[in-house]
Amino acid sequence: MASTPNFIEQPPLEGSMRTWGTLALSAATFMNILDTSIANVSLPAIAGDLGVSPNQGTWVITSFAVANAISVPLTGWLSQRFGQVRVFVTSVLLFVLSSWMCGLAPNMTTLIGFRAFQGFVAGPMIPLSQSLLLASYPKALAGLAMAMWSMTVLIAPVVGPLLGGWITDNISWPWIFFINIPVGIIAAVAIWSIFRKRENVIHKLPIDTVGLIALVIWVGAMQIMLDKGKDLDWFHSSVIVALAVTAVVGFIFFLIWELTEKHPVVDLTLFKGRNFWAGTVATSVGYGLFFGNVVLLPLWLQQYMGYTATEAGMVLAPVGLLALILSPIVGKALGRFDARPFAIFSFLVFALVLWMRSLFNTQADFGTIMVPTIVQGIAMAFFFIPLVTITLSGLPQQRIPAASGLTNFVRITAGAFGTSITTTLWENRAAMHHAHLAEAVNNGNQTVRSTLTGMVSAGMSPEQALAQINRLADQQAFMLAANDVFYISAVIFLALIPLVYLTRHNKAGTSSAGAAAGAH
Asked: Quick one: 84 and 215 in the same domain?
């Protein structure tokens, strides 16, 4: 992560070659980003088919994200050691292979392993697609290249839930992975044929093996602890205690090693800069909140509101529409204005969206649930590009690749952690609300007595009537728990605003703007 590939200066691609090259790179990027959102609405179907709870199904999301985050720091070393075109094409082909294996997975353990492999091989794809695309265009058209790249990144989250929901309802969930196979093969063949003669100079560089192993150990232990905590009753379990100790000790060792290593896998000295650390924390916590709630919403809709996967996908899909329209405008405006008010505005809109969701009830209709999703597109447009521009501003050109890689690593890891924390908090709050509701359900309650009498009169047995009331209590408890999570998330977004004020205003340079586009 700390170094950037040395390129042979290549002339830009011309005419149809540039068009086909852009389309091939965009297809590969689209496939990658699609896989971060396409499985969200399919989690209940996957979990049910493989015999686990829907909350355990979230491991399908978190395993991909953690492995993806871990492999991002290797991109620079791999590019210099083997060549960026070879690494990119290999990543695409391995992504195709892993997608095929995910679709064939016979159980949840195997699927999680294949998803982790898929996330790991996907790591270099996004930064290298950006690098290859910029090298294909004249410098004067670099902004156009990044705008086109950003469009791909913004369309994928719109298409993902819709496509995932439709495939799950009308075919079967393995096809959300199988659809990658033709796209990936065509993209890999096209990219190799167009870019193979545009390879960078290869150097044999040392790799920080110890640092990488330490990174895998502490991030992996932390994620497994978060995923398994509820099932094992948290710190009452010796397994969870062991994972927590491993994560803490591994993290401390990782910090010490990386700060003293000559060629660190992660350049931690970047955190000395106020803009970098404050911007990275704000981006990562914000993204963790956003991603956790994006996973929670379809789980709640399908488990307790009777939505199909397709309908849940329709609720999530509009999130990219306003982002698609506003992002180019925001990108242009950043060249003239301070990025900080843009970022603060995004936090305010995110807080508004989550507050609106915290008012949902079990009678909320499709339109009511969709409105905050549409508004959230505004927040997304003002979130990514301004925050990464702030984070990278003031850094010398040669440190931009390392800084961009590190902030992306922290952001993706925060997304995985956010998913686990959100679903765990949701279940814990639901258990608490269910207990309170159950206290009110007793023979001394006139409403309960009349309801039970009505159900028995309608032909239910007393046991069936009680079971029906328990189901209603479950639905209400998980609704109230979702309200709690949405409200807490809104408050945390507001609490992040002072972090943005801590940063200094530096006029955004082209390097920062370019890297910002890649922060999606």
From this structure: no
